[in-house]
Amino acid sequence: MNKDITAIFLTNNEVPEKWAEFHKKCLLEALEGAPLITMSRKPMNLGKNVLQDKPRSMSNIYWQLLRGAKMAKTDYIAVVEDDTLYPKEHFLQRPKKHCIGYNMNHWHLFTWGAPMYSWRNRRGNYSMLSYRELVIEALEERFAKYPNGTPDNITGEIGRPMVERNMGITLRPVQEFETITSIINFNHDKVASDPMQREHRKSWGHVQAISIPYWGEASELVKHFR
Question: How crowded is the C-beta side of 197, counted as CA atoms within 13 Å?
Answer without folding.
Answer: 15
